[in-house]
Design goal:
Its cofactor is FAD. Pfam families: Acyl-CoA_dh_1, Acyl-CoA_dh_M, Acyl-CoA_dh_N. It comes from Paenibacillus lemnae. Keywords: FAD, Flavoprotein, Oxidoreductase. This protein is of the alpha+beta class and about 400 residues long. The longest helix has 30 residues. Helix 4 packs across helix 7 and helix 8 runs antiparallel to helix 9. The N and C termini lie far apart (about 55 Å). A hairpin with a 2-residue loop joins strand 2 and strand 3. The chain is built from eleven helices and eight strands. The chain is about 50% helix and about 15% strand. The relative contact order is 0.12. The protein is globular, with a radius of gyration of 22 Å.
Length: about 400
């Protein structure tokens, strides 16, 4: 039993689910170096996730899913991140989106029901493609250059999306588009067709196997009822905790590698393993402090979101802080792990240099650090105004 690994498991059902996922994560870890080297998409990982029934984890029970909580989603993501960050991040966008649709009621029920049934029966997946080279992250409010024009029975959508994670495997996805007729922005559910082209542009430093290529739409058709106009209930976007949970898992893997190395590596200049050196023990202790602090904040935020739905619209600062702290602490943990292992950690035959590259991607996932700081400052200043 590992105290750190099992600390936030609450019951037998969670333990059994994670036991199965740990077996998958171990296999994903074995494949990760090849996919990282080639920048290839891990189709076999998602095949195993589909066959294990994990794609339906957040689908409502009414449609045949498990309807897991946000807390349980965080557990799942952390577990998969320990094996392969790219697979975990891609998978998180899928199960996170379904959780959001479930809790907000953003989609018309018939459209959501059809998606859920296809997930359960066929292993369908979903993601939203909102980023564009000219607008940057959708979280910063840029207006999409992609346009949706009316046609008989629906819409014709044209544009180019970047950072389209999971694009190699999806048969449907949501895109944001501007309506020229009135300048408004809507989301549209689009099915893959000859009018949708995948341009393999994804060649990055980290998270190389997420398949986040460009997707080009050339008058791709979306039916009239595939336009999503509602925003649903405000749930504070709790589903985005799938992101820091993934990075917590990567940091845990780095920590495990470094602790094992320190416990077993004995250079001929020492009578015992380097883990007996005070300086190394200090670094291990610092890793533990960083990781335990981050995880406590992560799981507290998830549990509060689950247990107190009435607070969800007011939780963006708490959720954003969890992402900020987890991601930045994870960076520190990987850095400390590499310092413990030394120059060997730079070798591509070991996983630490991949963890180092993957973990940095968290800085560019929403919400970004400066936006979290702005939100925290705004709340603090508003509190002072109310007391004046």
């Amino acid at each position: 039993m590992s105290f750190l690994r099992d600390q936030y498991i609450r019951n037998t059902a969670e333990q059994e689910r994670l036991n199965g996922l740990r077996e998958l994560a171990a296999r994903f870890a074995q494949r990760a170096p090849e996919h990282d080297r080639d920048g290839s998409f891990p189709f076999e990982n998602f095949k195993e996730l589909r066959e294990g029934g994990y794609l339906r984890l957040t689908v409502p029970k009414a449609y045949g899913g498990e309807e897991i909580s946000l807390y349980e989603l965080v557990q799942v993501q952390e577990c998969l991140g320990h094996g392969d960050g790219s697979t975990a991040l891609g998978f998180g966008w899928h199960i996170g989106q379904i959780l959001q649709l479930r809790t907000t009621g953003k989609w018309p029920e018939t459209l959501f029901a059809e998606l859920c049934q296809d997930i359960v029966k066929e292993g369908a997946m979903i993601n939203v493609f909102g980023s564009e080279s000219g607008t940057g992250s959708p979280s910063r409010g840029g207006k999409p250059a992609t346009i949706a024009e009316r046609t008989d029975g629906g819409w014709l959508i044209s544009g180019r999306k970047t950072f389209s994670t999971l694009s190699p495997i999806l048969d449907r996805f949501v895109v944001t588009a501007t309506l020229p007729e009135d300048g408004s922005v809507s989301e549209f559910l689009v099915h893959r067709s000859e009018q949708v082209k995948l341009i393999e542009t994804w060649n990055t430093m980290g998270m190389r196997a997420t398949g986040s290529h460009d997707v080009v739409l050339e008058q791709a058709f979306a039916a009239e009822d595939a336009r999503i106009t509602g925003s649903g209930t405000d749930d504070g976007s709790g589903w985005l905790l799938h992101i820091p949970a993934c990075y917590a898992g990567i940091a845990m893997a780095a920590r495990d590698f470094a602790v094992h190395f320190a416990s077993t590596y004995t250079p001929n200049s020492l009578p015992g393993p380097i883990g007996e050196l005070p300086t190394v023990r200090q670094s291990i202790g610092q890793m533990e402090a960083e990781l335990r602090t981050a995880r406590s904040l992560l799981y507290e935020a998830a549990d509060t979101w689950d247990q107190k739905p009435e607070l969800r619209p007011h939780m963006r600062s708490q959720l954003g802080l969890a992402k900020h702290i987890v991601t930045n602490h994870a960076l520190n943990v990987v850095d400390l792990a590499m310092r413990i292992v030394g120059g060997t950690s730079l070798s591509k035959t070991l996983p630490l240099e991949r963890y180092y590259r993957d973990i940095r991607a968290g800085l560019f996932n929403p919400p970004m650090d400066n936006m979290v700081m702005e939100l925290l400052a705004k709340e603090a200043l508003s509190e002072m105004d109310s007391l004046a």
